[in-house]
Design a protein that fits this description.
Layout lengths: L4 H11 L10 H18 L1 H6 L1 E2 L6 H7 L2 H11 L9 E2 L5 E8 L5 E7 L11
Antiparallel strand pairs: 1-2, 3-4
Helix pairs in contact: 1-5
Organism: Liparis tanakae
Protein name: Phytanoyl-CoA dioxygenase
Length: 126
């Protein structure tokens, strides 16, 4: 990993999450993507979007991710040596098409590019 542990801790402290860390090898990532695609086929995108809780108890490939040495190392670097898995979940935000404000010559609304909306907790915090 090219970024220092101190910098990772700083980013985590500011944002509350880390992303784009190269913890899986190319083949592991490919296998994981394939396995998740199988979950989507089994449960449907509507269910896999927010409702896959604790599936590490049923699927060995998910359990293996929770124990992956590279992932565990990053978690320990950020949170310290005493970590325990209490819950596992996949939260998927699938891209949707946002209508473009512009209209074509026939006055039809042009579909925009796919986008994924940002997660917003503030609308739930009052």
């Amino acid at each position: 990993m090219t970024i220092s542990i101190t910098k990772l801790q700083e980013i985590y402290s500011q944002q509350g999450f880390l992303s784009a860390l190269p913890v899986l090898k190319e083949n592991e990532l490919t296998e994981t993507k394939h396995a998740f695609s199988e979950l989507e086929k089994e449960f449907g995108e509507g269910h896999t979007q927010y409702s896959l809780h604790n599936i590490h108890l049923q699927y060995p490939w998910v359990r293996n991710l929770t124990k992956h040495p590279q992932i565990i190392q990053v978690v320990k670097d950020i949170l310290g040596p005493d970590v325990i898995l209490l819950d596992s979940r996949f939260i998927c935000k699938y891209p949707i098409l946002k209508p473009d404000i512009q209209k074509n010559e026939e006055e039809e609304i042009k579909p925009g590019l796919p986008y994924v909306a940002w997660h917003q907790d503030m609308r739930y915090i009052h």
